[in-house]
Every structure is written in structure tokens, then in C-alpha cells.
Design goal:
By secondary structure, the chain is an all-alpha fold. The protein is built from 4 helices and no strands.
Length: 105
């Protein structure tokens, strides 16, 4: 397994842990979510940079925007607003789209 995949899986786990911590009302959930989202963003940006196929490059760009939605959700939680689930919903829809679209190519 590539180190890039390990970092991506760990960052996804951090995102889930951050969301659970926030929902349970425990301190630090927003920071765990932000670190996980930023790590996802870095890995996906690197993946797009080394990609050579145009179709996969477009999918990587969508995944970059998806990870930016996780960072946006962390910002919304940090500022104390209550609509933090909307960026996560957009992230989920983009991830689902790429998972179906990527299976065809």
C-alpha cells in the first residue's frame, strides 16, 4: 500500500473522529476535523499534480473541492455557526459522484 493511501485513510478517520467529537460536545473536535480535512486536501492536491490522464485529473479536481468542503465545515464549526452539516453534505455528494464516475473510467 502506498504511503499516500495510508495518509488519506488516516485523514478520513480523523474527519470521522472530529465529527463524532463535535456531535458529542467534546472539546477538540473542530481541530481534529480541520487536521483531517487539511491532510485530505494535501494528499488529493498531490494526487492531481502527479496525474497524467485528463479524465482522472478532472476527478481529482472534484475530490480537491470535496476536501475543501471538510475544511469549510471545520471553519463553520469554529465560528460557532450551526449549519456545519451543509459543507459535509456537499462533500458526501461529491465523493459519491466521483466513486460512481471513477468506476466507469
Amino acid at each position: 500500500m502506498k504511503i499516500r493511501n495510508v495518509i488519506l485513510y488516516v485523514s478520513m478517520a480523523l474527519v470521522i473522529v472530529g465529527i463524532v467529537l463535535h456531535v458529542l460536545g467534546l472539546a477538540g473536535g473542530v481541530y481534529v476535523l480541520a487536521v483531517g480535512g487539511f491532510a485530505m486536501f494535501c494528499v488529493r492536491t498531490y494526487s492531481r499534480a502527479i496525474c497524467t490522464d485528463k479524465a482522472k485529473m478532472r476527478l481529482c479536481t472534484i475530490l480537491i473541492f470535496s476536501s475543501l468542503m471538510v475544511v469549510a465545515a471545520a471553519w463553520v464549526i469554529y465560528t460557532g455557526r450551526r449549519y456545519w452539516v451543509i459543507p459535509l453534505l456537499v462533500c458526501s455528494v461529491l465523493e459519491l459522484y466521483v466513486s460512481f464516475r471513477g468506476a466507469q473510467s
